[in-house]
Amino acid sequence: MAPRKPGKLVKAALEKAVEKVAELVNPPIPGAPSSQPPDLDEPTEPRGPLPPKSDQAGPARVTPTGVNTGAPAQSVGQQGEYLTTAQGLRLYDTDHSLKAGDRGPTLLQDHHLREKIMHFDHERIPERAVHARGAGAHGVFVGYGTAAKVCRAAFLADGVETPVFVRFSTVVGSRGSADTVRDTRGFATKFYTQEGTFDLVGNNIPVFFIQDGIKFPDIVHAVKPHPDREIPQAQSAHDTFWDFVSTHTEATHHVMWNMSDRAVPRSYRTMEGFGVHTFRLVDADGQTSLAKFHWKPKLGVHSLVWEEAQMINGIDPDYHRRDLADAIESGAYPQWELGIQVFPDTPRQTFEGIDLLDPTKIVPEELAPVQPVGMLTLNRNPMNYFAETEQVAFHPGHLVPGIDVTDDPLLHARLFSYLDTQLTRLGGPNFGQIPINRPHAPVNDMLRDGFHQNAVHAGAAPYRPNTLDGGNPFPANVGTGVYVEVSQPLPRAAVKVRQAPTSFADHFTQPRLFWQSLSPVEKEHVVRAFTFELGKCYEQAVKERELRVLANVDSELCAQVAQGLGLPAPTVTGRQKRVAPSPALSQVGGTWPVDGRIIGIVVDPADLDGVRVVRETILAGGMVPLLIAPTGGPLSDGLVAQRTFLTARSVEFDALLLAASPPPAADAIPSRDAKAGAPGGAVDPRVVLMVQECFRHSKAIGGWGSARAALEAAGCATGAGIVLGDDPATVLGKVTKLLGAHRVWQRFPVSVP
Question: Of 188, 314, 476, 518, which residue is 20 to 30 A from 389 by alpha carbon distance?
Answer without folding.
Answer: 314
